[in-house]
Protein 1
Amino acid sequence: RFMTPALENLNHKNLQNFFYDLGVETHAPDGFRVFPIGHDAMSIIKGLKEELVRLEVTTLTSQKVISLEQTSEHISAVITEDAKYLTSNVILATGGKGYPVLGAEGDGYQLSQALGHTISEIHPAMMPLKTKELWGANCRADTIAKVEMRVDIKKYKKLHAKGDLIFTKNGIRGPVVLDFSREITPLLAKYNEVPILMNLTKGMNEEKIRQHFKKLQQENPHITLLELTQSLLPKSVSLELCKLAKIENPNLTPKKISGVSRDTLMKLLAWTPLTVNGHDGFKLAMITRGGVLLKEIDPNSLQSKKIKGLYFCGEVMNLDGPCGGYNLQWSFASGHLAGKLLD
């Protein structure tokens, strides 16, 4: 609801038209995500820079902002390390704390807090995760599609995500992990380890998996347990799950393998457990979870309800979306709405 005014003001079609007018044509090759036709991010930067020149906008760099001054609850000046700039309007477009090599410092939070705004807890998000178990390192060559992931803590059972999964040397990544990490990082700060369950079989439960195997066995009585498992998952993952089920030789037919091990494998295929025990912090975080509380901002203008002349856009606010371009759309749309005050 908070986002509605900004998105109605600049939806994804409007944004594509905006860049088209800047000489940057876009397309959606998968019918969903929008990219510059040349798939070159520099074309976006080039288009925006050329527009700044056309509009004769003065750009000051290497000007670290120390504080914002106010007079009678209205913005009055921007103070940098070297100068003071008088102004009646300021747009905070500082972003979050993710990927500091690109310039993010989280200074927007300090500037807002100094003026009386409340900042929610800040956590890195949209990032790979590390796991205690290392068997996934043997499965790095394969992407598992349509994985469902959920937290295996009773209080947080409702937290879940779906998408493609990729195993790494020391953990997991991929769209489902990027989306789910925003839920995991706060829990890691609280519990140090977070148990999760993954359905790697496109939503199949134990019963459906058993029926699937039974059908294949009827068609081929000599089919091995590994071949059955491979009908659902890549060989690398199949082998690791068989190891977890304590099946020493999965190249045997199911009848030659103990019932306990077969049952364990069924359970693992339905819900594979992992333990998330870390991440690389803001260094690899594509977004930041948390920020200036939305209840302190007017959604119709993105102006502060506390200080007149102070506006917000993008990630500095307590608002973030899933992987797929939503956060970029919000940054552009919120910046466009806040910037209307300069017209």
Protein 2
Amino acid sequence: MNTYFKFLVIAISVFAIISCSSDDDNPQPVIPDGDYFNGVLILNEGGSAGGSVSFLGADQQEVVNDIFAEANDGQGPGLFLQSIFFDDEKAYIISNGSDLISVVNRYTFELLGTVDSGLSVPRYGTVLNGKAYVTNLVEFSTDQDDYVAVIDLETLEIEETVIVGGSAEYIVSIFGDIYIQNASFGNGNTISKLNPISNTITETLQVGDGLNSIQVYNQKLYALDSEGVKRIDLGTFTVETEINKPEALTSVSNLRIENDQFYYTSGTAAFTTSISSSELSSEAIFDYGSDSAFGSFYGFEVNEGQIYVGDAADFASNGSVFIYSLEGQLVKEFNVGLAPNSFYFQ
């Protein structure tokens, strides 16, 4: 081998080693396949003709409506869509009017499977250790038949049902346990703790009347009721701090927490308070002046410095989404599907 060729081989080898090392040290982000990987999913409850899902891209320039039907040859996800929960690249869309959960790829919205038996007015879900835990309201005349369906995510079969002993509404998982809001439609004042190993309710904590929101933040559970916000220590499952509601606010709903700030609504106005405060603020960030009798703040979420509002208008025509800055300036407004009730960020 002549000296020039030997030098060339060495140079190529060194370059290859450096290139591989550089790639390993600086891995490129993996961009999922699909049109819906960067933006916000908007769930539209719908009516007797069925619900739908809209998508707003990260640039907030255009809403694409009815993406489920578009990806699945016109098929819809069911009647009266309630919520979506996620497990990695899968999204689980709950239809409480059809007693159905549609499983889709969260980025393409291609239908992968369904849970279509064993549900009765399903509401919310959470995932823990390969299982989904989904609350079911059953009969509206009583809360004693409400249950949590335990679903094997490999087979999409219900393995077990757990009677809650009260309303089964919003549900969250943290530290290997599951917490259930035992209140719906303004009634109820307890939170239940479910042990996923024994699938039994092990403890119930009483808070204030009118419990309407629970949120997990910084390893604590927060509950919003008619008295204000309660911070719950999950180790002892007791209320450790209370942040009182001022008399100037007749009611409060829709608790969200971001960057150590509470966000909540009252009437057609949104408010914010530091989590270190002893009383909730009654000074509105904005009042969007909805004239909807029952559809104002039908959806509400806070994400990356913006407040998202879903307004259901008259529940017969398409709803609207408003995006506000944290200072209360209207940033964007879009028409979406019927009765937008929740937002999910991709």
